[in-house]
Amino acid sequence: xxxxxxxxxxxxxxxxxxxxxxxxxxxxxxxxxxxxxxxxxxxxxxxxxxxxxxxxxxxxxxxxxxxxxxxxxxxxxxxxxxxxxxxxxxxxxxxxxxxxxxxxxxxxxxxxxxxxxxxxxxxxxxxxxxxxxxxxxxxxxxxxxxxxxxxxxxxxxxxxxxxxxxxxxxxxxxxxxxxxxxxxxxxxxxxxxxxxxxxxxxxxxxxxxxxxxxxxxxxxxxxxxxxxxxxxxxxxxxxxxxxxxxxxxxxxxxxxxxxxxxxxxxxxxxxxxxxxxxxxxxxxxxxxxxxxxxxxxxxxxxxxxxxxxxxxxxxxxxxxxxxxxxxxxxxxxxx
Length: 335
Hints:
By secondary structure, the protein is of the alpha/beta class. The protein contains 13 helices and twelve strands. α5 (101-118) links the parallel β3 (93-99) and β4 (122-128).
């Protein structure tokens, strides 16, 4: 068994079982990958992929187990390489982060400004997408860090660090009937079409839709967009009232719209930073976490990274202590 074969195996699985696409991704030939796959299956005396003629159409049950273990082996190889790189304490290279448009446009610029001054030779690759897309990239280890919001479970292999909270802001034109109300309630929002962000993991995981259901109301969500500026555009064009992150609304720049804080009618959102627990955190990665969430001490970060407790009871106690600590609001320390 060769590491090259494991690389080919994972590449096939990550490219929709297409040997052609896997070959393109690895800059090698399709026949070469096919040959190595046959040799691997012959050595293991098992079929890793289900076939329809020459076409791969699925992964066998035993193949899934082989694939999972192959990923672990390749991850460990990467960690060994990272450790040797760290010996030089390099401040150059590349650093990838997947995040949402809101975080990329309204939260991260100031953070990156400070971070870039310390690491001017470090290339930062910022990738934007929906929360679901970000989670997929993180699980496949296509990015170093993911920054998003939402209450969805990220899985046992992901370390998730809650960083700060924020409220949603309701947007509508100056002549909208909601502007005549002294106090806006959920039942008032339910009367109008709503334009907002897509829901991570589906609507059932959304604290927004759950807040309506708790009051036995049904929100009329007619349009979703990952970009807050797109949401504002559609509010301006009469699609409905908008609900965006508070940091995405500026009374000066968006003076044609009224902004109403939903802190009394909708639950607060939590932005988290996450990474694979098997990743070796370089110094600049830890420094970035410190810049992004300066209230998190090095001791707290270490506890998140090394959560290897001797008993489940101790793990529960530590988790409860973390949850008891209130997170800062975004405006208090970033703006």
